[in-house]
Amino acid sequence: MIVVPLAVAVPWVGVVATVTEVAVPPERLSVMVVAGSMTLGLGLALLLDRPGRFFGFVRGAIFSAYVVSWVAVALLWVLLLDPDRGIAAAALKSLHLPRIGFLSDPKAALPTLAVVTIWKITGYAMVVFLAGLRGVPKALHEAAALDGANAVARFRHVTWPLLRPTAAFVATTSLIVSFQAFDVVRIMTQGGPARATTLFVYAVYEQIFMNLAVGRASALAVIYFLVLCILAGLQLRAWRSHTIGRRA
């Protein structure tokens, strides 16, 4: 049994309490953003990895969302999700479905921000996966096809193992983006409703500029920095293990 000295345990308890009091744990948003962007990005990359102007146009149209600023994206989605004049409200009304407060319901606000984030960064994930797919030797697919492997088997046993480093990179960058969410929160929800979307970076902004609580803001910033360091370390370890495995 490990006994933690009281002088060491109490400060950390206070830090954890401070974080949970002023910020929403980011794991829900992170899981939705990482899973959604990776799934859509990989699916679109597999679907659009074809020559031709049409597929090039579609790839460019999807990627264009990534180069648009977060402020413009947030303002666009505020108009789309307007409960009175938005397209989402009109679609629900035409289907005779009850109105949903996408930005006013505490249960729907965070998933809505996740959808907006996924919509913006899916183009980036698609481009990265396209680059990974272009690096898969065609000879391996031809050999697997000659052995009788169908498309699903070729993806499972040939494409996906070679895409694992790319997938790890996309997962890490998507996770960091989910931790850095600020513009969409500031414009779309201002941390509400009922503090349901007060994420890490917005909590730092709120504490230092609105509440003038420099101590809490500093604690959140330090924790945020440590989390990013851990994520960077995990990514570097994954890359090193993959490189060593390939050399072996």
Number of domains: 1
**Spatial extent as radius of gyration:** 22 Å
* Count of alpha/pi helices: 11
Question: What's the count of strands?
Answer: 0
Description:
The protein is mainly α. The chain has a single domain (27-247), classed as MetI-like fold, CATH 1.10.3720. 77% of the residues lie in helices and 0% in strands. It is built from eleven helices and no strands. It has helices spanning 6-22, 27-48, 53-67, 70-80, 87-94, 106-134, 138-146, 151-179, 183-189, 200-210, 214-247. Helix 3 (53-67) packs across helix 6 (106-134), helix 4 (70-80) runs parallel beside helix 9 (183-189) and helix 10 runs antiparallel to helix 11. The longest helix is centred in the C-terminal third of the chain and has 34 residues, at 214-247. Mean pLDDT is 85; it is low at 1-10.
Name the features.
single chain; about 250 residues; globular; disordered N terminus
Describe how the helices and strands are arranged.
Blueprint: H1 6-22, H2 27-48, H3 53-67, H4 70-80, H5 87-94, H6 106-134, H7 138-146, H8 151-179, H9 183-189, H10 200-210, H11 214-247
Helix pairs in contact: 2-6, 2-8, 3-6, 4-9, 6-8, 6-9, 7-8, 8-11, 10-11
